[in-house]
Structure formats: C-alpha cells, structure tokens
Amino acid sequence: MQSFLSRVISEVLKKSEGKVQNKIFVLPSQRACVFLKNELIEQLSKASFLPKIISIENFVQEIATISQIDSVQLLFEFYSVYKSQTAENDLESFDTFTQWASIVLQDFNEVDRHLIDSKDLFVYLRDINRLNNWSPNTELSKNYFRFFEKLHIYYEAFYEYLVSKKIGYQGLIYREAEGNMQHYMKTNQGKEIVLVGFNALNRAEEHIFQELLQNGFASIYWDADESYMSGTTETGVFLRKYKREWAYFQKNPFNWVENHLNGEEKSINIIGAPKNVSQLKYVGELLDKQESFQKMAVVLADESLLSLALNSLPRKVDKINITMGFSLQEIPLSNLFNNIFKLYLNQEKLGLVEKKLFYFKDVINVMNHPSFVMLSPTTFDVNSILGKSNFIFLSLKQLNKLFGVEKEQLEIITVLFGIEKYEPEELIKVFIKIIQWIKLKVVGVEKEQVYRFYTVFQQLQVLNEKFGHLKSIKALYQFFNQLVRNEKLSFQGEPLQGLQLMGMLETRAIDFENVIITSMNEGVLPASKSDNSFIPLDVKNHFGLPTYREKDAIFSYHFYRLMHRAKNIYFIYNTERDVFGTGEKSRFLTQLEVNRKDVVHTVLGANIEMNPTELKVIPKSESLLKSLEELARKGVSPSSLATYINNPVDFYYQKILKIREVDEVEETVAVNTMGTVIHETLEQLYAPYIGKHLTKDILKKMITQSEELIVSNFQIVYVNGDISKGKNKLIFEVSKKYLNRFLRLELEEIIKGKEIKIIALEQKLSSQLEIEGLNFPVTIRGIVDRIDTVDGRLRILDYKTGMVKESDLRMPDFSVMKEGYKYTKALQVMLYVHLYRSNTNVDVSNVMEAGIISFKNLNRGFLKMNFGEGYKRDYEISNERMEDFISELKLILKEIFNSEIPFQENPDKAF
Amino acid sequence: MPVSSQFQVYNASAGSGKTFTLVKEYLRILLSTKDSFRFQNILAITFTNKAAAEMKERVLKSLQDFSEGNEKALLSILETEIKLPQDVLKIRAKLVLNSILQNYSAFNITTIDSFTHRLIRSFAFDLGLSMNFDVEMDSGALLDEAVDVLISKIGEDKDLTQVLIDYSLDKTDDDKSWDISNDLKDFANILLNENHVSNLRLIENKSIEDFSKLKKQLKKEIATIQKELTEIGKQGLEIIETTGLDPKDFYRSMLPTHFLNLAFDLTKAKFFDQSKLKDRIDEHNFYAKSKSEDIKATIESILPSLLELYSNAEKLYQKDVLNNLVLKSLIPLAVLKQINSSLQEIKDQNNIRLISEFNQLISDKIKDEPAPFIYERIGEKFKYYFIDEMQDTSQFQWQNLIPLIENALVSESISGDKGSLMLVGDAKQAIYRWRGGKAEQFIDLYQEEKQDPFSISKEVKNLDTNYRSCAEIIEFNNQFFTHISDFLGSESYKELYINGNHQEKTEKNGGYVQLSFVEIEKADKEKALAFPKQVFSIIQKLDPSFKKRDICVLVRTRKQGMEVSDYLASMNISIVSSETLLLKNNEGIDFIINILVSIQFPEKKDAMANALYFIGKSNSKAIHQFINDRIHLENNTIFQSLLDIGFEFDQYEFSSLPFYDGLEYLLRSFKLVHGIDVFIQSFLDFVLEYEQKRGFGLNDFLEHWERKQNSLSVSVPEGQDAVKIMTIHKSKGLEFPVVIFPYDLDIYREVKPKIWYDGLGSKDFLGFESSLIDFSKKVSYIDEIGTKAYNKRREELELDNLNLLYVALTRPVEQLYIISQKNGKEKELEEATSYAHLFIDFLKNNSKDTAWSEEEIVYHFGNSKRTNLETEDTEEYNLIMPEKFISSSWKNQNISIVANSSKLWDSENEVAIDYGNLVHEILSKIKTFNEVNEVIEKYLFEGFLDSERALELEEIINSIVNHPLLKGYYKEGIAIINEQEMISQDKLIQIPDRLVVEDGKMTILDYKTGKPHKKYEVQLQNYALTLSNMGYDVERKILVYIDTQISVNFVL
Ligand code: SF4
To answer: Which residues of B touch A614 (CB under 8 A)?
Structure first.
C-alpha cells in the first residue's frame, strides 16, 4: 500500500511536473523529513536541486528570524530578568527559582504559542479572584494570586528582553513568526510551501498556515481517516475543527480523508505482560518469528526502555535504525561526575568545607570508579588502603600520602581533591581537567561520550561566566543533572532500511506495515494528565489553551494514525499497576476492544520453576586433604571449631582457601574493636598483679586507671578513628561503663571477703590430640583470657563483650555440642579447660570452674559451665566429664579431617 | 418509586454484591440524565487499584452490554429506578460509553491514595514542595537512615548527647543492648502513622530539657516511692507483730506476706489481679471461719489500719507503675522531633515525599481552603461521590473529603441537580487499623443516634444476601460468627457480628467446610512443616474437577506464606504468589550478586568463592581445585581463566556499559538464562527500575539491593494454573472456589505494642499531658484512664482479629478448609486467646456429628464432592506462553553510537583539522560577512567553543569572508545557496558548500581542510556537471583550503 508520504510526493510531482526546487516541504518532525526526502529521491527522474524539507519547528524559526535557545540557557536568561524585576529581599536563590521557573516557562510557552493576549490572561486571573472572593479568603489563595500578578511583570519583561536579543523559546518564536508573516511572504516570493501530515496545531500555527493557504503560498495534506472525521471522537477533534472553521476549506478540498481503519483488514493483537522486561523480551520473540524487517517498526511508548529493547533483539535483525538515543546519564562516566559531586556536596553537608576534609566513602566511590582507575598510573586496592588507615575523614595531604606514589598520580589527586575555593567555577575546572585527561586514553565511541560531557561542562562554564548565577555547587549539580538527562547519544544505523526502533512522536507521518508498540498503558500512552502548569484549568478552557484533553486527543491521533496503513499490529502492555493506579491498560486498547470485533487479547503466562535451594558441598579431594593436614599441624583454634560447627563451608573458606576477613574502614567502632579494647585494657590493668592476691586498694586503683587506659587503647586499636562523636562516642561510653561495672563487681567480691589471686592472663596454650583413623596428630591452640583462683579454687575465664546467657553454658550431655552455633561457647570454654589441663597436668576435679564473663550480662556475674540436667545445677568439672568432652571433640575433629565427609553447608547456620 | 436520598450508607457484608450495587448506583447517575458527560462529575474512591480497575471495567462492560442489548437484568432494575424506557436507556448507554472512552481521563474511579496524591501535586507549589518530587513507598529504610543520622550527631549537640548516652547507659545497667538505634527506630515508626498525630502534637513543643527534667523527677519519685512502700511494709508488719498474731492466723497468710514483701522484696509484692489478695479484701475475707473468735476480733481490730496501709501502698504502686512506664519511653519520645527533622532533611535532599505524609498535609494546609478553590485547582468539580471500603478509611482521609463532599451535596446546579454521596463498607472487614483505618467512623455513620457529618440526612441500607458463597459456607459462617460474637468485649462490636451474620443464601447450593486440627509438639523443624503438610494433603484430596488455580491458601504473615510455598514447591505443586517468591532465594540471582560484589569489592573473596562454586559445582569432585586455583588471583585473571569452560566475561567491558546493559551482558556471559525464568526477569525489572530512578552505579546498586532484597518477589501474571498463596490482607475483596486457611493466630499478640496514656495532665508531670508507653496489663493498674485505654485496646484487638478471620472465611465460593491447632488447654469463649479456642468452643456447642470431641481432629460440614460444576471460568484472556528469553548485545546488530561530534574535538596533533571542520561548519551558517559575529556567539553559548577559541575562529572566518579573492561572494545582495542538496542524474546526493549566483552566472565554492588534493577537484567537477544538467551556467569553481593559512584555488 502506498504510504502517506509517497502519495504526497506523487501528487506534488504530478502537479508541479517534476519541478520541486522552489518547494518547501514542512513536516511535523525531523524523522518525517528524512522519509519524505527518500521518497522524493526515489520518485525524481532527473538531476535537480532538492527542495527544502524542514520540520515545522525550524520553519517557524526561519520566519521569525529568531533562534531558539535551550532550556538551560533560557533559565539563566530568565533569572537575570527576574532579578532585575524583584526587590532585593524577595529574591530567591537560583536553585529555588529554577524549581518553579521551569514550569512558568512552560506556561509562557503555551500562552505565546496560542497567541493569548497576556494582559487579558493575567487580568482575568486577578479578576476571578476578586469575583469569587472566596470566603474565607485564605492565605494560601491570596498568595496564589499574588504570584500571578508577579508573573505578569516577569512575562512582559522577559519577552521584551528576549526579542531584543533575537533569541527565544519556542512559543515566543511562534508568536513572532505569526507577526512576521507578511514580511516572510514578501521576501520568499516564488516559493511554494507544502504542509504535510499535521494534526494538532497551536493557534500560531493555525494562523500561519491559514495565511499561507489563503495567499496561495501553500498547499496542505492531511492524513485523516473517515472514522474520525464525523462524529465526536477525540481523535479527529482538531481535523474536524480545521475543516469546519478554516475559510480556505470553504473552497478547497480537505485532502485526504481515507478509509483505512474500518475499510481494511488488520490483524490486531493485544498482549499483556508483567512489568517491562517480559514485554520487551516478548518483542524479541515476536521479531524472531518475522521473515523480514522492512516496513516494520517497534515503537517504545516509554522511551526509557531503550537499553532493555536493545538487549532484546534477536540476531536475525540485521538492519536497524534507532531514532532514540542513550541519555548521557546512563553512561557510566556520568557516575564519576556524580560521585565527585557527592564528594563535595557531602563535604558541605558534614560541615567539612572549612577543614577541606572528605568522607572516606565518597573517596572510595570516586577512586573506585572505572574511569578514575583508568587514569591512575598505578592500581590500588583503595578499600584496603583506606581500611588500614581507618580515616573517616581525609584531607588532601593524607590522600597524597596514601596514594601519591607517582608524580602523575599526585597531580590527579591534587586536582581532584584540592579545589581552592568551594565554588562552582572551581569544580567545573576540575571536571574539565579530568575530561581532558580521560580524553587521551579513549577512542571512538568512548571519546564521543567524553566529548559530550565536555560540552556539558563547557556550556555551564560559559553560562556561568556570563551570568554568574550559579552560586553553589548544589545549583551546579542541579543543572548538570538536567543537562545529562537531556543530552542523548544517538545511534548510527540504517536510516531507511530494516527495523525501525522509535518513540511514539517519531512515527508522525510515517507508515509501517508491521507495528509493535510497547508500554501501552495509561500514563504512558496517553501520558498522565498531571500537566505541570500554574494556570488553572478553567482559565485554560476560557482562553482556549490546551489542557490534558487536547493532549489526550493528540496521543489518540498518533495512535490511530499509526494503524492507518498497518496490517499487523501488536500492542503490548504492562499488567502490573503502580501504586497510584497508573499502569492501567491504555484507554486506546479499551476503545479498540469495545469498537472492533477483530481484536485478539492475550496475556503472557509464565512457568514458575522453583528450585529448592541447593546446599554447597565440597568433597575432600587429595589436595584439600593435604591442606587439612597442614592445618592440623599448625593448629586449630576454638573459634575456628565454632566456625566449623556453625557452617563447615565457612570453615573451608577461612581455613583452607584462606579467605581472611579484610580490613575495612571502620566508620563506627565495630563490635570486635570494642572487644579488643576491653580485653587489652583488662590485661593491662591486671598484668601487674599476676601471682598476687587482689585487694580493695588494687581494685580501686584499677577503677581510677581504667578510663585513661581505655582512651589510649581505643587510639591504638581504632587507628585514626574519632570516638568523640556519634555511635563511637556511645560505644566508648559503654566500654567505660562495662569496665567500671566489672571492676566494681570484683571489688564487691573482695569486700565480701573472697580471695582472688591472678594466675595468668592471655595465656597461650596448645596441645596435640591423637585421633583414631588419622595418621597425624591434630594440634589445638588457644588463648585463655584469664586464669585465677577464688578462695583457692581454680577458675578459667573467658571475656565476651556480646551476650552470653547461663543457658548457653548448660551442657548436661556433650553430644549436642556439634549441633549448632548455640553450643559453641560451651565448647570453647571446655577447650580452654582441656588445654590448661594438658599443659599443667592439673587434676581438674573439684578444684576448677570454668566460664564466661559476659559484659552484656554482667548482673549475672561469672557464668559457669553447668552440667546439671533439667533445672539442676552442677558445676563440677570432673576428669570423667573431661574424657566425655574429649571424645566428643574427637568426633568433631574426625569429621573435619575425614576424607569421606565433604564440607557441607549448614542450612540452619546462625549467621 | 422513592427518590434515593442524596446520602446513602450501605452496610455490605462479605459477598453481598457490594460492587454490583456500586456499579448500579453509578450507572443510575450516569443514565438518569441526558447529559452524557455527567461521569466527569463523579468521583468514585476504592481501596485498591485492583478494585478501581474492576469497577471501571464493570461500568464499561455494562454500558456496552446495554447498548448492544446483551444485558437485561441490570437494565430492567435501572428501568424501574430511573423510570425511563429501556430503549432510551440503551441509547443513552451508547452515548455515555462513547463519551467516557473519548474522555477517559475524566473517568475518575480511583484509589484514595491516587486522589490524595493528585491533590498534593496540584498544590505542590503552594505547599512549598518541589514540583517534581518522587513518592517513596518504603519509608522504613528512610527512618532507619534518619535514626542513624541522629545518632551520628551525638557529640555535637550537648543536650542530645547527654540524653542519648544516659539512655544507652541506663540500658546497659539493665543488661539490655546498649545499642539504642533499634529502640529509636521502633519509636520513630509512629512518625509515619497518622494514628499518632494528635498525641504527637501535644508533645511537639517540649524541649529535650523538658524531657530531661521530667526524667530526673521520675527517677527521684521512683526512689521515694520505693522507700515509702518499704516503710508501709514495715509498719504493717509491726502492727501485726504488736498484736502477737501469727501470720498464719490470716487467711493463707496473705496479708502478712504482702507486707513482708513490701518491706523486703518489692518485686514480689502483688497488687490488683496479680494475686488473689485484692479479691479477698473486696470480699472482706481475711481469716478462716474456723479461727477462734479471739483471733478474729484481734484481726478485725487492726484491719482498718492495715487496710489503710494497703490502700496507700496500692496508690503508691499505681503511681509507680505509671512512673516506670513513662520513664522507659521518655527518651525515645524526647528525640522524636530530632528524628523527624533528620527525616525531613533526607527527604528534601532526595526530593522525595512519603505517601504517609500526604493526608496530614492536606488536613493541615488544604482541607480548609474553600471547596470551589480546591476544585478549581484540581481542575475538576465533583458532584457525585462514591466511597468503597469505608471501614478502612482513615480519619484524615475522611475528614479531608468532608468539605468537598459537603459542598457537592448542598450546591445546586442550574438544572436543579444536587450532588450525592454513597458510602459502602463493612465494619466486619476492617483490617487496616495499623495503617490508620478507622472502622468506628463507619460504625458511627450507620448508627442512627450519631450525628451526621453533613447537613443532609442519610439513609442506611443493608445488603443481606450473600451472592458469593455456596449454602454450606454461608450457613457455617452465619453460625460460627454469630456464636463467637460473644467473645467480643465491646457491645457495639458484638452487635456487628450478630446483625451481620444472617446472610441470605442464593440458589448456589452445596458447598463444603472442613475444620481440622493439627497437634504440634515436635521439634522446631517439624513444627514449621506441620501446616504446610496439611495444606498439601488437602490439595491432594480435593475433588479432581478443581483446577490448581481454583485454590487459594490464605495466610496471616508472609513468613507463613513462604513456608507453604517452599513446601508446596518442593512437592511439585505449581504456585503463584506475589508475596512469597523472593528473588534473593534464586541461585542465579545470588550468583549475579556475588559477581557484582566481587567487582565492587575485590577484597571480598568469599563472594568470589561463592561465585566460583556456582560455576564449578557441576563438576563437584574437582570443585576444591577449581576454586583454590583461582581464588587468590585478580578478578580479571579469574574471569579470563573461565574462557576455557565457555564463559566470556570481561570486567572492563562490564564497567564501561550502562548499568542495565552491563547486567544483561553478565547474564549472557555466564549463560544464566535458558528458557523463561521469571525470577531473573523480575530481577532485571528491579535493575531497570533502579537505573531509571537512581542510577548511581554499582556500589549504590548493591546498597539498594541490600535494603530491598527481603521484600523483592517475582511478579507473575494472573491466570496461571497454579495454587495461589496470599496474605489475608491481599485477599480482601477477592473470591476463590477453594480456600485453605492454615495456621492459628494469637489474638492479643502484638509486636512491641505501645499505647498513648492521656492522663498525665491531672498528675504532676511537669505539664506533660500524654505519653506513649509500653502496652501491657500494667496499663490497666494505673487508674481509670489506664483501665479504659487498656480495655479499649483489647476490644480493638478482638475486633481486628475477628475481622481478619471473617475476611479469610468469607473468601471461598465452594469449599473452605480451615486448619487450626490443638494447643493444650481449651478455653472458655470469654477467655479465648486464639482462633483455635474459638473454633473449639464453636464445635463444643455444636450438635451431633460435628460436636467437638477430644479424639476427632477433622470436622465436616456438607459434602466435599463437588456439586456445582458450572465452572465459571475466571479466565478472560487467553494465556500464551513465551518461549524464549532473548538477550543479545546490540553491538551484534551493526548498531553503533554516532561519534561525529567528537571528531571536531582538538587534541594536540589534530588542531589543524579540527579548526578546519569547525570553520567549515560555521561558514555554512553564514550568508553575508556581517553575520559572522552572531553565529560565533551562538556556538559560544551552546558550549561548543570557549571564549578563547571563539576569538581565534572569528579571526579565521573573517579572513575568509574578507579575503580579497572571496570577498565578493560574501557581500550583501547576491543570491546565496549554502549547503544546498541536489541529486545527480544517477540519484547521488551532492552538497556543494556554497553556490553564488550573480547575473545568471554561478560560482561554486567548496571549503576543504588540510592540503590540496586532486580528488577535491574531481568532486567539484561532478557538482558542476549536475548543476549544468539542471541548466545552470557554471562560471567558476573555487576550492578554499583552510589550513594554517587560507589558500584559494580556482578549478578549471
Ligand atoms: S503535543 Fe505532541 S504533537 Fe503536539 S506539538 Fe507537542 S510534541 Fe508535537
């Protein structure tokens, strides 16, 4: 079937007998221009100048001789005008200003495009306020109307200013163009304008078109369907109006109204799919079933799905043209800039600007970014370097010391972290410098990406040099974001062949035989009705400004027009709604279902395969067994046994693969740091008294010493950390309290008359165990926190900063020991007893107790191993019990070293 | 035919055709006017999106059916109500349908949240909100962050530091965790819940200092009271002693023991119902009848003073209870304001708002604006209101709507039409109190004696037929709920259940209810499986004509849901559930996360080990070798080593791709998807959403994942033939042929319950009026106010949980299976604390074969054989199964990114060319010499040039346009054609840079960069050929070389 554009060209060529040089084709979009040109070349039969083929937007600029400036520059200009019109103390900062100004600009745009007399509008707005005089006349409504009065002033001033500079936004250009028609026609005598494929026109366009038509300057071709030229459908609301109201059509035919929608057979499929990925993957599947991709379009109603779409094309699709682009925001490089912004924004947030310190996490994020890594002459393990240093906040000097091993590196770091003044200009310079470095390292597409960022910063720099509005880094960030969001990297493809991947607006005036549209949902197609505007709906209606109704109607036209010459159509929508109910299937689909009988509606199903979670199993191979043997020689600690019991795979990781836990920056004193500090402090406090009896005076002295010791131990263990703030402060205070309470409890004991004698502290012990079936002994080693005697009775103590309950040490039967993490505390205590016993040959029975001091459970004092059954208590560590324990221990060890039993993940592990 | 009132309240028990009634009323309003656009003035508010969608669909469907003559029943009802012939209605229906479809945006059937959101958006500017804020649903994570920020401020602010450290140390003294974040987070939650707003306002202006003062005072008082109590104890003992009485002379030594405890161990002293003593005192029963008169007399003689002591102690105890309760939560309350302001900061920074704050904002700032003003701002004027699920509407939600509705009800249109309001609800199905839902608002509305919110009086109607369920189920529920209504403490709640359970049946006969009990006393693991196993066996035994999709398992919590899904899945029963199939449990996703962690944190070797395990596990024997050989290498070396086994992944490639792209690349590289995998797809959707909304790269993504992973589950389309598993809350409004309801529930159990105690004002609490305290029996000891609050809370819990049960049991159409629990003690109805007690009590009062007996664990009502076989197929759409998961790199498709503009970009040795290109481009924009300035300025502004280079370029360009040989071609008044496209005879496109026509003769100018070359001349010749083919007289052909110098070359 002949496409609309092709028919237009045939018609024009026929009428002009092949002479097109003086024509100017005006089309709704750039894309349509390309297609029209192609059509023209196809149909032209001899050498010729090509006529001008131009989008309406550029056409209007030409008439107006005003050039359009982008939204960013516009905001800068607007702020200047705003400043000149606003009293000093009412002045808002640039970033708050832009919040509302961008919406105001949209309103100005509409007002101008529709040639509304601004005075009328603003006076009207004021008058309805007076008229209604709502009681109570609230502060809110008063402010609202006061705002309008100001808007009027800004509008007038801004308009005048822009016109004088011959720059403007779209609406202004339209208004000026409309006023400039006479002049245009005079200077362009002999041109013939062909208006092609329009639908909704703003009032300026209406005037311009009519003027051209009435003066015989132009001809016009519509792409209309009978089904909406009569009746009341929103689809045809504009076309019907023009046909009815334009004087031109009193005498001239309304070309063309055809009967595609109801007059031709079409295959229409509606397909529901949950969320986005399944929609686009299904598109891939549909494409895979196609024979050819000529005259085929995939339309992404939601253009943000581009990268998903690009990853879902079957190999078969060999030629493709993409009229959308990746936004710069999606390019990983933009994250580097984001990270740098964050670095400085957080500096401000955390009050570190004066001190020029940086938050370590931000530093890591910047230095770990692939582009930064690429720049560095040396590679660093940033996390662990910072981890070792443990700085929470870093200065340039410290960074240089840590990373500046080479001159080049030093320079990069100095540029990046060393801005002189906390000002946007400075930061822009940093960015440009970085870009220039990166530039040297990349080629091709990546160079293009870098370049595009370069222009972004370049633009910001120029604007700010000229206007100086950007006063804060925050404001700079805001604009940076806006720019990278709007800037698109486009694709190189086959502009006219193969599959067309496009957004809805680009389909204007172009026809396809096969069409797939995705995201056919309310809120996308049509877009949601929340239009950002300050002008109330009633007022818009009164002045004939477009409202959501007109927007809906425009979408409706786009939608139905695309169906005109299509034969196979797939509409895919998302079945999942979002919280606010958008995501309903598009009304257009509902309309089709109500009005047509040939619609097939299906929903994608899915098989849900649930694989039961598989547990990790690592069989013990030869080499693994060798590692185990070595481990046996070096020694197994109580805590690694605990690890094994909790999860054998963790044991395998730590002891066989030797994956150690790594140093990370401790932003807050981690719990184990706290443990270390308390252990250390206790050791230092008690060390002078090894072999002595504790007295009241000793303990009192310890109490006074403890605070200072804690402080110094924190400084040693928690390098560079700050314990005067935040959670650290809390932990510091808690550690103090723990020690204090512990020492006081001990003091009380002494006062009660107990005799406590310290035997040893942090005692390193080891012993070997022969295990049946193993041809090597297994070494066990461990450090006992404290050994003392109380009233002559030997005690083995383990300090724990975490919570240990009495029940954790209840062990009437050792066979449960290997069953779970919960029993491993008892296991550890028993191991210490065993180690002590085998090193000293003491007969433990009746002279020994063993247990834990839990600082989180100090009220319970010394928690002892308890062998009593049920509610009975029995603290006696007899030789017999030790034998029982050791045989259980051997069972565990035997399992660890058994070549037949693999390391198997424990599904019930505690952590 | 009576005219319906403007204000109707419908009481609609489960299955009573609520939606039908709503739709009918909606249609009545639509069709009783000639104006086919009346729908624009109707606002219908539903509770969920799903309900809104259903109502929309039904309205449209009915209109279509009317106009096509396919529907009779509803139409004839409307015929009598509207009093217009069906023909007229048919025509109107057609018109209305068309109007709606053509003006769909004004078809306002929506959720209250959407409406609120819209309102806020319309007023964003006035409220000082950013105009493009995002709405955050996951407020929990934000609160956590806010609390962390607060804690990080310790050490900065003196007062704050003091209270928080003290708070932490106080907790340490009690051997509680010193970490106060969790306590604060618990408290902070109330900031998000509108139930607390009014109380929070009361403490809003208290400073931290005020709180500290109160704390000090309370601590002091607590110490004093302890002393006083001990004193009382001693006095009591002394009095008894001086009389020489033996403690045993008293009834069970109760009174003496009490004093003993007071004197020596306060924790053992019991008051009120903590022991029987209070009862005995009330009965005046102090000694056994058998005691000698002497002893009796002695006791009587000292009783007055003992009792006085007792009651003094009791008063002190009451005070003490209150003091302790208040003290315990004082500090979290004190810093609430600070947490709130941290929260505010976080929201501002991220430009987000919480959905939970909307209602309050409206209430504070918008509600009292004149209704016409609000209507104007939202751009729509509603006259007719429909509100569904009124019982779950919160106080703010309702109060915020009242002014708008009132305006609609009283104002009259020119044609004399008045607005209307229809409220539909069922207090028995109120299950959202925790979210602010206030059933009492609805209950009040239909109680005649309560005052109406509007000047128009209401009309209350009851819908009393159950159209949903089969007879047996209706019967069972009627009996069961009527019976257990006695359980409810509150009379008005009780009434709900008595009145609401006389549901009439329809012709749906048959149906089946089975009530079974499991006994649970085994080990932990078994316990978790007991219910799932029962569910499975019920599914196995179902009448085979049921399809899997007819079955729905209802659970109270997601955790239960997961237990059931895991078990059923392991038994190969296909299931769907949007709540229980967590993404993080999927192996492939776990692998992806491990790889991502390894890339971001190369030092986290355990992640790499996990990933390697996943890759190598198919060859389990060699797995150790496989991992061990690689684990200590650098990432990229590891990845390279995987090439041999077919995995091609390059970390650098990954990092250079946009994030979503990178993820698909990863999927492809490791061949993670074979067929359609809903888990992976849902994960990708998550990634995509992440990239669209935040997109800050890998590190940020991993943090995001960390926060969200526990709630992310697969999204699956409806209509699968699989067993549904959902929470009762989700099931509201839905129906299923078969419902299985496992698990018991403890009615009074709450997680860390808290309650506002409002009686501080009358006591000496330094001007504090109310405080949030832990909720327990103790609250009832405080005083009258405490008792009331306690009872009210209990009554509410009873209602809420009975409601939940009601919702669950009224979902089935044909069969209902309840699996409850036999847990030791049975309890009387009044003492019941769990669903099981209720079921057992119900059975006990049953007759014959369904009467409770210890031995029987299964009870049947009706026949499990299916009778109504007319399977209403719920499937509206056909299901198609996608077959492939296509993931391919777009780079395979001959697509590349255009890299043109950077060609112009300078680098040391390209300077010349670049200048040339730029000059070239600028020249094409210039018609006459005096435009140079303007054009360059434009380039400058758009960021293509810096000012330095602009100057240079300007110079070069000027040197061209002013070049003695070229000058003539840039003057004014000659015909210029810049970059005019033309096609040659053989359809090649040619673009000469500049054509100048003067006196009928043409000159061709073409700019070239770099050194002169022969090929340029050929090109120019070709241009000339085409032009002369077109009939031009080409006089001169000029090549302008732009290099370090300008050279002009005339081609012959
Ligand atoms: S609304 Fe759509 S069709 Fe109309 S001018 Fe804007 S982009 Fe073009």
So the answer is: 587, 617
* Nearest chain A Cα distance for residue B131, angstroms: 7
Q: What pLDDT sits at residue B2? A: 42
Minimal C-alpha gap between A653 and chain B (Å): 7
* Strand partners for B628: none
Tokens of A792: 């002559």
Tokens of A136: 């109570």
Give dist(CA B235, CA A196) in Å, integer: 106
- B20: part of which helix (H) or strand (E)? helix B18-31
Closest CA to B861 of B539, B508, B542, B512: B512
Which letter, b or e, does each residue of B928-964 get, where b requires 16 or more Cβ atoms within 10 Å of its Cβ?
A: ebeebeebbebbbbbbbbeeebbeebbebbeebbebe
CA distance B490 to B644: 74
- Spacing, Cα A519 to ligand 1 middle (Å): 19
The CA distance from A631 to A625, in Å, is: 10
Q: What average pLDDT does the segment A684-705 reach?
A: 94
Contacts of A183 (CB under 8 A, 6+ apart): none
- For residue range A592-640, what is the model confidence (pLDDT) as tens digits? 999 998 999 999 887 777 776 788 999 999 999 999 999 999 999 998 9
Interchain CB distance below 8 Å, B888 and A335? no
Band (B713; pLDDT cuts 50, 70, 90): confident
Distance B252 CA to ligand 1 centre (A): 91
Go through chain A and tell me how many residues it has.
911
Q: Check CB contact under 8 Å for B114 and A581.
A: yes
Closest residue, chain A, to B690 (C-alpha): A330
Distance (Å) from CA A308 to ligand 1 centroid:
26
Distance CA A880, CA A864 (A): 18
Residue A81 CA, ligand 1 centroid: distance in Å: 28
User: Whole-angstrom Cα distance, residue A478 to residue A480?
Assistant: 5
Q: Which residue of B has its CA nearest to A624?
A: B624
Q: What is the average pLDDT across B31-41?
A: 92
> How many CB atoms are located within 10 Å of the residue B999 CB?
8
Single-letter amino acid code for the residue at A352: L
> Distance between CA atoms of B411 and B381, rounded to whole angstroms?
11
Contacting residues of A for B981, CB less than 8 Å apart: 49-50
Whether residues A48 and B574 touch (CB distance < 8 A) is answered with no
Q: How far apart are CA B98 and CA B106, in angstroms?
A: 13
Report chain B's terminal Cα–Cα distance, integer Å: 101
Least confident of A167-176, A219-228, B140-149: B140-149
Question: Mind listing the pLDDT tens digit for each residue in B659-689?
Answer: 999 999 999 999 988 778 889 999 999 999 9
Mean pLDDT for chain B?
88
Most confident of A45-54, A431-440, B440-449, B799-808: B799-808
Q: Is the pLDDT reported for residue B870 higher than 80?
A: no
Interface contact flag, A368 B600, Cβ < 8 Å: yes
The strand pairing partners of B45, in sequence order, are B110, B387
Instruction: Give yes or no for residue A505 CB within 6 A of ligand 1.
Output: yes
Tokens 């560079």 -> residue: A720
Please indicate, yes or no, whether the overall pTM of this predicted structure exceeds 0.80: yes
For ligand 1, atom 4, the nearest C-alpha belongs to A200
Q: Which amino acid is at B1007?
A: Y
pLDDT of residue B1: 33
Joined tokens for residue A138: 């609230």
d(CA A510, CA A38): 12
**Is the C-beta atom of A554 inside 6 A of ligand 1?**
yes
H helix or E strand, kind and range, residue A221: strand A218-221
Q: B963-974, pLDDT tens digit by residue?
A: 999 998 999 888
**Are B628 and A738 in contact (CB < 8 Å)?**
no
